């Protein structure tokens, strides 16, 4: 079967999304999840249905991994799967990554630029 058919069967609400938003989210996921092709189409569909804020968790974790790797650390988040990061309840994510709130504010300020 066609992967697109499987994706839409597994996540029919994708059909209600604006095509531009679907494309934008999919593009961002392709940037943040290099191994996205290893996930089942239904899982990828669930990834796309996440909010932009939740998807950006992946950018934060990726930056943490890069920083820890550069520092020679072997912290556990280096091995976190995208599905785990996206499905983690907000309260648990914030307990595990308390620095995320500051990162999110900084990222928003950089995105919007000086006023």
Automatic annotation (TrEMBL):
The protein's name in its UniProt record: Uncharacterized protein
């Amino acid at each position: 079967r066609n992967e697109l058919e499987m994706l839409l069967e597994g996540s029919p609400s994708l059909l209600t999304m604006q095509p531009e938003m679907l494309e934008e989210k999919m593009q961002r996921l392709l940037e943040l999840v290099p191994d996205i092709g290893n996930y089942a189409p239904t899982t990828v569909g669930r990834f796309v249905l996440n909010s932009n804020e939740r998807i950006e968790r992946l950018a934060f974790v990726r930056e943490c991994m890069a920083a820890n790797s550069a520092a020679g650390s072997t912290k556990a988040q280096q091995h976190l799967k995208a599905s785990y990061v996206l499905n983690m309840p907000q309260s648990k994510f914030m307990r595990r990554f308390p620095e995320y709130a500051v990162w999110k504010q900084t990222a928003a300020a950089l995105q919007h630029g000086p006023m």
